[in-house]
What we know:
Blueprint: H1 34-51, H2 64-75, H3 85-89, E1 94-95, E2 110-115, E3 121-123, H4 128-133, H5 138-147, H6 151-182, H7 187-199, H8 202-207, H9 213-228, H10 234-250, H11 255-269, H12 273-281, H13 284-295, H14 301-305, H15 315-324, H16 330-333, H17 340-349, H18 354-372, H19 391-397, H20 407-430, H21 434-439, H22 459-462, E4 477-488, E5 493-503, E6 510-515, E7 518-523, H23 530-536, E8 543-549, E9 556-565, E10 572-582, H24 587-600, E11 609-612, E12 621-623, H25 627-636, H26 640-643, H27 646-657, H28 688-697, H29 703-715, H30 747-760, H31 762-775, H32 790-801, H33 821-835, H34 843-863, E13 867-870, E14 880-882, H35 884-906
Parallel strand pairs: 1-2
Antiparallel strand pairs: 2-3, 4-5, 5-8, 6-7, 6-9, 9-10, 11-12, 11-14, 13-14
Amino acid sequence: MKNPPARGLNIPEGVPSNSLVVSDEDSGAASPRRGTLRASLVVGLLSLLVYTANFRSISGGDTYPARYLPFAIWHWHTVFLDPIVELAAQGRIPVRPRGQPRAAIDSNPAYWIVQLRGGHAVSLYPLVVPMLVSPLYLPAVTYLHATGWDPKQLDRIARIMEKVSASLVAAASVALFYLLLRRRAGPRSALLLTFAYAFGTTTWVISGQALWQHGVGELLVVSALLLLTGTCTPGRVVAAGLMLGLITCNRPPDIIIAAALGAYGLWWARRWAPLLVTAAMLPAVPLLVYNLGYVGHLAGAYGLVGDRQYFGHDVPSGLAGLLFSPTKGLLVFSPFLMFVPFCVPTLLRDDETRGLAIAALVAVVLQLLVYAKADWRQGISWGPRWLTDLVPMLVWILMPVMAMRSKAARAVFVVAVAIAVGIETVGAFYYTGASDVVIHDIPDGPNQMQEAWAVRNAPFIAEPRHVRPPFELTTHVQGFLDVMTTGDGAGSRAIDVAGWALADRRMPWEVIGLLDGRPVASTRVFFPRPDVTKALGVDDQSAWHLTLPADGLSPGEHLVAVMVRAHQGGDIRLLAERRFDEKPDLAPRARRAAEILSSRQQQPGYWLTSYTDRPIFEGPHVELNTYLPSVIVDVLDPVANAAGVQSSVERARRFLTAQIEADGLVRYHGRPDAPTIGTLGCAITPDADDTALVWRIAPAVRTELRTGALKTLAAYRTADGLYRTWLAPKDRYQCLDPGADPDPADIAIQMHVFQLLSKVDPPAANALCGALTRAVDDDRIWVYYKTAPLIPILRQADLRASGCPLRLPESRQRTTVPGQELWLSAARMLDRLQEGGGARPAASDVLGWLQTIAEDDFAYVRRSPPFLYHNDDTATVPRFYWSEEFGYALWLRLYVELGRQASSGAR
């Protein structure tokens, strides 16, 4: 019985609807033969020729790490960007992880580079692209070994290698894509669709022009599809698994593609499915080693600087922008993809393509939904860049398109392909990014996307209005920044820079001056430099001079970079850069901090502590306790004279001494007979923490009281050598709301008891150090500082100084409480300052932190004061304790320590 005609594509009668036939001439062989392999090679070489025909790269900040990292890998044997960071940053400064003080020039940073706490610079992006293309760089590395590693020469070679590598990767994906199509299509259909894939999509202007993640992403997706549509063998299963794993490691959002194809792969692999899963996990091993061992975060550099609000946009408007906007719409730039819905039914009816088609459709839909939540303008890049990795699957779905009965429909498809190729041709030969700058003019607000919907801003319309970018891939820039001076003119401040520049031994088109990553001056006026003419034998004028306006520079490090544009409409290239420090005058801020501390100290000598019922500093209440003045005195004591707070420290000490009771013990809220009991505290049970703190910081004259206190402390020592919190039997507890463990041995209490014992009972201190070292990562002792590690971080240096080299695990030095990363950063810097040696933090980091906290009369302290501790989270009533005064004390400590570091460095 004859099968009914397939609906949707009008496949001719007589063709079974469950068999994919794409045209009359496609009834031939489906497996690649020798002629097919030759054709794929020709297609790949033709693509390579076209991709390189514009003789320039179309890159962006996203591609810079991959451009330069292969040289660091081959020559310096490192995956850090350190040896080439200036070239990779191109006149800007790397970003820093969340919680670190931002440099003054972070307003326009090299977002593609992250400066780690240890000083190393790493790529924001995974290393899959630079690692995979590194073998292609070997001839260039050999050349530079022979001719020298001059930075400008390295930059020129890097640009060439980026272009060549990207074009080779994209061309390889085209060749393999032809083989993929020939599995189910005849030569003519396969060639047409391969042509559409190669020249009618962002494969040309994104993947083929620079080392974006998308080029390698496409190659991996095509390779996976080619394997998954072939015969299942153990070798192919392993290869497919590796491709799927690399897809995920290369670009995190592509985990959707890998998961969808992987789900189909499990069915395809059948009894070899465990092998597929194992192979897919292999690429994750080096990725995790790099992320955790080098970057210090499970998610890599993304995890250090990622913004949770990045995916905070509206899905419907995002989908509309991704698909239909004139500036970024996938169906605008590649209109032939509108035929995808009409081809899906045929693939779903075909037993051999149904599973893979479903997987591809799921991947496309889910990734569209994910990207719709982000800013669909996609930065400064050509067209629908984000969707490039989906292109192989979308074009693969189009296989039945030429089986349509309607000649008009087939003609429309061919015309749509031609339009897409025309659009991409404009991109390859005219795109400079100028049109994208316009659509980002409105950073936020209800009209944020307005310019992105303006047809006049479509890059294939806007970009041809300017001069066609030149063929300048091999352009060699020479020059030097000879002089940089800073001075004050008539009511303004300026930086004068002067030097010389040549491009291919000719006068360049323009010299541009960047201040803190932003262009602030440029010149096209050049004049003679006899010394350059004599040395290089060139007649063209090369000298230049720029005046950079520098009013209102904030204190801290700043960067001047000089860029050269060799030809009109061409790229700018780094010529030279210089850093300078704008010295801040923090002395008035220090006096202000000391003044605030003194004014808030109560007459008896204590400071009040704030507390809330949530881990957010909103609507705080206040109480009196002995803990806060103790830790403030500890922080200030080494710098009290220099900070001008000696009298405040002494008053606090006198108050603390007065809290020691007849049995030698100290209570958290002070003496039970104090007038503040009932209003600012209660008659609480004595505790080990405050007893140890007060006896070390402000001991009483009567040493027999200390003997009694030590005896009581020893009575509450646990079997594993730690000390409990409350110094009374449970039936005598007063004013307590204990948790699951009514008398826990907390981490900071052990630290404070150790500090006391190290002075009065060294053997007991040594025993406690050993017990604490063994238990440091045990959840049982992280009771009051589980989400507030500030004090334990600060105490590490004190313990080292007393002979206990305890190191807190990195996982214990983090918090999820908003606004606390800056305080933890300060604690780490102070810890490293006290450790000395090469571990000292950079003065610029400390200075940046001081400036950030002191801005607007210490607004940060008032808004997000240090979160010091909390009660047991298993207790009935939650309490979270904060102190603005501790913030001022910590600021003063770092301020004085920075001055001392500068003085010792000067000597």
